[in-house]
Amino acid sequence: MMIEHKKITEVQLRSLIRENQVVYGGNRKLKIYGLLSCKSGKRMNVENRVFFATIDEAIEKGYRPCGHCMREAYKLWKDGVI
Asked: CATH number of the domain at 3-78, please?
């Protein structure tokens, strides 16, 4: 279940993170997902930010791994493995 940041409060977001329902963040416009701790992800606009519970969920939605915080997965994606 992809969650849009602009549709939830900060309190709800923290709760979802604690419950492991939000593990990865993504950029809706660029179709990139990565770790919540990623510096690139933290700079994106709230309007573009989405959240995922799993990598599979992000991939199913057509997102690719971040080249900064998920270098190994990004390399596999770039090589066409995933």
From this structure: 3.40.10.10
Cβ–Cβ < 8 Å for 13, 53: no
Residue 9 has pLDDT above 90, yes or no: yes
Cα gap 27→44, rounded to integer Å: 7
Tell me the per-residue pLDDT of 35-62, one tens digit each, with 9 for 90 and over: 999 998 889 999 999 999 999 999 999 9
38: its two tokens: 């990623």
Token digits of residue 51: 């959240």
pTM above 0.85, yes or no: yes
Q: Look-up: residue for tokens 């604690």? A: 18
Exposure string over 14-41, b if 16+ CB within 10 A, otherwise e: eebeeeeebbbbbbbeeebbbbeebebb
Is residue 22 a contact partner of residue 12, using CB atoms and an 8 Å limit?
no
